Amino acid sequence: MSAYFLKSLFLLPTLLRATLAQSTTATSASTTATSASTTATSASTTATSASTTATSSASIACNNSPDLCSQQYNRITHLGAHDSPFLNPDGSQSAGNQKYNTTIQLSAGVRLLSGQVHYVSQSSSWHMCHTSCDLLDAGTLSDWLGEIKAWMDDNPNEVVTVLLVNADDATAQQLADQYESAGITGYVYTPPTSGTAFTNWPTLDQMISNGTRLVSFVPALSSNTAAPYLMDEWTYIFENPYDVTSSTGFSCNADRPSSVQNNAASAIQQGMMPFMNHFLYAEQFFGNVPNVTYTPVTNAPGNTTGNLGLAAATCESQWGRKPTFILVDYFNVGPAIATVDRLNSVSSAVGRQSVSTTTPSASSGVGRVSTSLVVPALAITAVVFLIMG
């Protein structure tokens, strides 16, 4: 192997950082515009909040329905926003998974929030980043948790779940420090036993009365002794496959953890909760991105191949129980909440904010590539030419 070849390889990270700087600048401008939009939405949310208060006074609702208060946490279906903090409001950010921010997601009925946690060495801090902080950095974990806390402060009858994908192997203590910084530890739920799945989960109204309304799961956490409320996902949950690129590819088979792979019946018998991934990727030469164009079909409540409604009904039939969690991209499209309401037998939601059911942009999705992904791809191509030239 020539010295020139090795030198070119070592230059790859530098070239990527340099080219990504251009993308970050463009993304920054988009974020500024999004911020202005969020400010306007905030005013709308304030008005909605007043309306919600008036509506809720007629009857106490838990997670938008009085009928759910007496239901156990593990026996209802929670709508999840896949990669909640990673936004694509106008179609310009291919790495984004949601149109609306976390606050609006919660106000519109989402009760499960997922996101990837990465370590940023330059600032010695933990950030919410999509795959890489050079690609999409949504800010610090503590700030995101603070946003969730602010919403929970204003909505005292709601139980929320957080799933933190531990991409850089944070310890329980490091994650707990972020919870402390956000001031959200006063809401955390701690399971009665550690390291064992159980079926006797409390009801929503019990969790609300006890002030333990925030449930936290973390996959690949070596030990949670420092923070018992950070539950190992693979002890309590099993998931179906998530890397689906065809509308015919959705499956109810248990995929993770490996201990119950292809054996959902065993997982359920052990007391593990079913977690249904239902989002579609588009394959592109630099990797997979959310298939925005097909989202209206993917999230639809109908019975057509690829529809969320059909997939949920199929899994409910195969598992002998409804999924505890359903995770989707662009939760507002479909709308995905329609399928969750059907599973929960909720016919008239209380205090839920209405949002547009459109995708970020008619020009986004399959065949459209944002600068956030084009720039690093071009950098890699440039290095290849250097090596081969």
Automatic annotation (TrEMBL):
Keywords: Signal
GO molecular function term, any single one: phosphoric diester hydrolase activity
Transmembrane annotation, as ranges: none
InterPro entries to which the protein is assigned, alphabetical: PI-PLC_domain, PLC-like_Pdiesterase_TIM-brl
Pfam families documented for this protein: PI-PLC_X
KW Signal (keyword) present: yes
Segment forming the signal sequence: 1-21
Gene3D superfamilies xref list: Phosphatidylinositol (PI) phosphodiesterase (3.20.20.190)
GO biological process: lipid metabolic process
The name this protein goes by in its record: PLC-like phosphodiesterase
Organism of provenance: Polychaeton citri CBS 116435
Taxonomic placement: Eukaryota, Fungi, Dikarya, Ascomycota, Pezizomycotina
